[in-house]
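Dear colleague,

Following up on Tuesday's group meeting, I ran the structure prediction for the two-component complex that the binding team flagged. I've pasted the input sequences exactly as they went in, so you can double-check that nothing got truncated or mislabelled along the way. The structure tokens for the whole assembly follow below. Feel free to forward this to whoever is handling the docking comparison.

Inputs:
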Amino acid sequence: MQNVQNKSERVPVHAFGVRFFHWLNAFAIFIMTMSGWRIYNASPLFGFRFPSQITLGGWLGGALQWHFAAMWLLVVNLAVYLLIGLVSGHFRRTFFPVSPGAVITDLKKALRGQLSHGVGHYNSVQKTFYIGVLLIILVTIISGLCVWKPVQLQSLVFLLGGYENARLVHFAGMSGIVAFVVVHLALVAVVPSTLIPMIIGTARVDMKKEGMNNHGH
Amino acid sequence: MVIKSAVAGGRLLERKSPILNIERRLFMKKALSLGALSLLTGCDASNPSVADRILWAMSHWNDEIQAAIFDSNKSAQIYTESDITDPFPFNAYYAESQAPEIAESGYALHLGGLITDKASWSLERLRALPQASQITRHVCVEGWSAIGKWGGVPFGEFLRLVGADTQAKYVGFSCADDYYTSIDMETALHPQTLLALTFRDQVLPRRYGFPMKLRVPTKLGFKNPKHIMAIFVTNDYPGGYWEDQGYNWFSGS
């Protein structure tokens, strides 16, 4: 036991701000999605409804209350995150550079189970996913605003091809976010050690192993 | 005519509204058992009043925000005749067959509250006022939308004509189907807000709200009351049929 502690130590992985944003955002996305499904059920765009057990709000009015309350949490939290991320250089350091070539290379590695998944360092597939989901969330918010205020924001609605189209974009955005969450959670299930740093901020790293081989997962 | 419609409406309310209310409360509790609230506050998630209070407070906050971003110079998009949705959907808290039947003879629009000239209005007199019509998109709180053409008396001009206190906060409506709602004065005075007497250039049919509905293209559909019997101006929040159950009051588009 003593021996192990000598060889490993806790290294910082996710700053407090990142963790704070992540969990508030996860909560907001959870509320927005489940209440959004209930709202969708009131007038389905496609030939299906979401099972009411996995929706939030109990009825349309309740779902709308949840949706338009949680939207503030989502938007304010995201705005602060984006502002600090841009100003502090966090995005530049963690998400860039990312090139299509590197993504393809890393994706091939990932499919062969050989992708480096080093602590506190994102590979190109991760970078693409995180940038991508942020963009999808932004599109979902913008299309959501269009559905909410089609008269006041009519120029924006026009850009999205009209009110009914904005609804479709909003649905597509939700689908993209849900797809991300499914993959994200599946990977956390495969590599559960990544969950701890997102909660406590640090990861226990076996210095000897980490130094020799960064292919842990 | 009023008696018949009131009976129809009363029966509906008796049958639907309180039961639905109870159902909704139970649903709300179920929804809370998901633990969402405890994540938010760390409080007892089985107590719906905490969530209710937060959600209602946020809804009031959203009323304020919407009033602030409402631009009375901004018009809803105008469509063409060929854009009109045909058939235009019927929508109410009851089935189409339950829509009130109102006879034109004997109908009078009652005025109340902060209005100088409270004399009632017959349809004939309303039709004699300058009329306007427009083709706009009706957006339902459920998400669907439909384009229709409504014509009638510009509501702001009507309010000024009868000497309404346009500094008052609210304009309320009570309807023959026991529906009621209210809107902010700024929206009431918006140039596109119409006291609609026609649909597609014909007398407003029963299913769309005969003898008149308020057409507000800058608000969601449920803020467009049909079968209006009385209009009142007030500074005391009048609420609404759906608003009292949880729909956002301002519900601007």
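The helical segments of chain B are 2-32, 36-41, 48-69, 123-128, 155-161, 185-188.

Cheers,
M.
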